[in-house]
Structures are given as structure tokens and as C-alpha cells.
Amino acid sequence: MVKRAKAKNVRARKALLYIFTLLFSALYIYFGNAYAQTGMVAVAEQQTPSVRARIVEISDYVEEENASAYEEQVVVYKTYFRAELLQGEQRGELVDCLQTVYSNFYPRQELVEQGDKLLIYESAGGETPWLMLEYYRTDALLILGALFVLAVILFGRFKGLNTIISLAFTCLAVFSVFVPAILSGKNIYIWTVITCLYIIVMTMLLINGADRKSFVAGAGCFAGVAAAALITLIMDKFLMLTGMIDDDTLYLLTLNVENPIDLRGVIFAMIAVGALGAIMDVAMDIASSLREIHFNSPQLAGRGLIRSGFNIGRDVMGTMANTLVLAYIGSSLCVTLLLVVYNPSLQELFNMEMIIVEVLQALAGSFGILLTIPLTSMIGAAVYTRS
Q1: Taking the C-alpha atoms of 61, 62, 63 and 65 in order, what is their torsion angle to the nearest 10 degrees?
Q2: Which candidate, 51, 147, 263, 301, has a CA 20 to 30 Å from the CA of 120?
Q3: What residues form DSSP beta bridges with 57?
Q4: How many other C-beta atoms can be found within 10 angstroms of the C-beta atom of residue 112?
């Protein structure tokens, strides 16, 4: 009876903590978004917003030959069609639209067909009242996302559901709080720390609860991210970074002339937030493995657990470092290809700030992973062997 009552109390505490975490996360997103948006620069809204539509009928198809500015023959493919508006005040109405495709554009846009969903906008005195802007691709992504959610829940069950919830809160924290805070001119360094700390604590509490494994993984993760952030701050001085790595950063700088965004702070945030996921993965791997080792071999001393953590970490380290490096290379592959083509000198290429920041991201994140391994191992050994 005593054991049953104790187990019931433990379950009740876990349920209360779970509910508290959900409520706190909802409040953090709501009030954090309200505060982060104060002072945020508003950009003028688009005069002719796009509208979702579905093609009902292809009316006509025309091919025209025109001479371009470089005196080359260009074929212009024009597709006239009727589409049903799927949103807005005119929802359900049929309108005449036009798609224009030029042969000298490569890769060319696919010609529309009946049943296609598009984004269209009203033209200003053109051949037709409406013009095609883009294919509507969100439906396919929503289906893929729904399949991913279903697969995670079927495989992980209740823990899989918590994984999806924590992922949703993570995305909301980044896009609803962190990004508006940066755009409104708040201190990027402070908000980076707040965001990383919130994501770590929220994820650990929702997925594992308030147990020793969560504490070990969370502490090791925060220590690894702090190490990556500290390395970034130190190298920022030695590398003489300005934050002007591409045209996008120039646009950011001109958003608010009176209170410009700290571009060097943006680099700091990029590296810390970018490394958080991989470091959290490594910290949880080691914390979970050490917990299982201690559970099956409780007589193993702290030094033995530390040694086991180091051995596990060595196996994890190589693949996770590759994950970071390949992720950064993959995300900027197009830019890298262009830079290699137009900068034959490797000396100039590897001294460009754009490339330097990418390398710094990979190295600082890898250092964070490297330091997460011994720190999580030592924290785990101290916590698990404590009676």
C-alpha cells in the first residue's frame, strides 16, 4: 500500500509539472511575443497581395518570338486560363489569368494545367485582370508534415507526442519571440541566452520530466552551448568580424537606421542557436546511456561512469561533428559554388567574411559538442552516484 501510494504521488507530481510546463510555455510565447514586438519596425504592406486560386479551365495557349535586350530570339509562352479564387472577399468567383514563361529563363517554370493550385495577383492594366505569381506548394508540405507527425507519434507514442509539442514550442519561441526581439532592436546576446535556456528546459521537462537524467542532459547541453558561444565571442575579436556577410545583412542593417540591428550579435545568435540541436542530442545520448549503465551496474564508481561517458562520447563525436559541418555546407552550397567560380584564389576565398563565418559556425559548434562530452559525463557521474 505504501509503495502504491508513493507511486501515485510521483505520477501526480509528474502530471502537475507537465501541465505547469505547458502553461508556462504558452505564457512565455504570448507575453514574450507582445514584449518582443515593441519597437519593431513595420515594413510597408504589399499593395497587391496574392490570392490562392485553382485553375478551372485552360482558355488559350500562345507562343510568341521576341528579341531580348541582347538581340537573341526569345520565345514567350503565354497560357490564358480561368481560375476560381479560394480565399478573400471574392472567394468562389471565376477570374481570367495569365501565365508568362520566357525561354531564356532557366530553369523555366512549368506550364500550368487544369486543377493546379496557384498564387495569383491583380494586374495593373495588363492583358488579363489577374497574373500568376507562383505555384501553391504549401499543401504538399502540410501532407509531408502530417505524415512526419503521425510517424513520430506511432513510433514514440506518448513521448513522440511530447516531441511534437516541444518542437512546436521551439518553433514558436524562435519565430514568435526571438526573431521579433532581434528585429525590434533588443539585446541579441541576452535574448539568445534566454531562448536557448527556455528551449533546453522546456524540451527536457516535456520529454523526460524532472528527473536526474533531464538535469544531467540539460546541464551538459547548456554548458556545451555556453562553450560554443564563448568561443564565438573570443574569435569575433581575432577575426575582425563586421557581420556584413551578404546582401541580406545589408538589408537588415537598413531596416532601422535609428536603432540598427547588431550584425555581429546576429552571427553570435546564428552559431549558438544553430549548435543547440546537435549539442542537446549529444548531451541526452550520454546522460541516457550513463543512467542505463548505473541502473544495471550500481556498484560502478564515479570514475567508471566518467570513463564510460568518454567512450560513448568518442563514438558520438565524429558523426555529430560531421552533422554540423555538412549542415552548414549544405545550407550555403549555392553561394559556395558561386564564390569558388568567381574567386579562383583560395587565399582570397578563405579570407572572405562569408566563408569565415561558415567555418566559424562549424568549428564553434564542434567545440561545443567536444566539450559537452566530458562535462555531461562528469555531471552524470556526480548525480547518478549520489545516494
Answers
A1: -160
A2: 147
A3: 82
A4: 21
Alpha carbon 374 to chain centroid, angstroms: 27
Please report, as a single letter, which amino acid is at residue 197: L
What mean pLDDT do residues 99-121 have?
81
> Strand, coil or helix: what is 289?
helix
CA neighbours within 13 Å on the CB side: how many for 256? 15
Note the pLDDT tens digit of each residue in 327-347: 766 766 776 777 677 766 667
- For cell 485582370, the residue is 129
> Among residues 166, 196, 174, 206, which one has the least CA distance to residue 365?
196
Grid cell for residue 252: 537588415
Could you give the residue ranges of the DSSP H alpha helices within 297-332? 302-331
Number of residues that make up the chain: 387
Q: Which residues contact 360 (CB under 8 A, 6 or more apart)?
A: 232, 235, 239, 267, 271
Provide the 10 A C-beta neighbour count for residue 314: 10
Cα distance between residue 258 and residue 255, in whole Å: 9
Kindly tell me the number of DSSP H helices and DSSP E strands found in the chain. 11, 5
**What's the whole-model pTM score?**
0.81
pLDDT in tens, 151-187: 989 988 888 888 899 999 999 999 999 999 988 888 9
Range from 41-50, 52-61, 181-190, 350-359 carrying the lowest mean pLDDT = 41-50
Annotate 275-297 with b (16+ C-beta within 10 A) or e (fewer). bbbbbbbbbbbbbbbbbebbeee
Query: Is residue 17 scored above 90 in pLDDT?
Result: no
Q: How far apart are CA 80 and CA 101, in angstroms?
A: 12
User: With 60 as the cut, is the pLDDT of residue 270 above it?
Assistant: yes
Element containing residue 111 per DSSP (H, E):
none
